[in-house]
Amino acid sequence: MNFKVMRAAAAALAMLVLLPAMAAAAEITVYKSPYCGCCGAWVTHMKDHGHDVTTVEMEDLTAIKKMTGVPAPLQSCHTAVVGGYVIEGHVPASDVARLLAEKPKARGLAVPGMPVGSPGMEGPNPEAYEVLVFQTDGTSAVYARRKGKQAP
Question: Can you give the pTM of this predicted structure?
Answer without folding.
Answer: 0.82
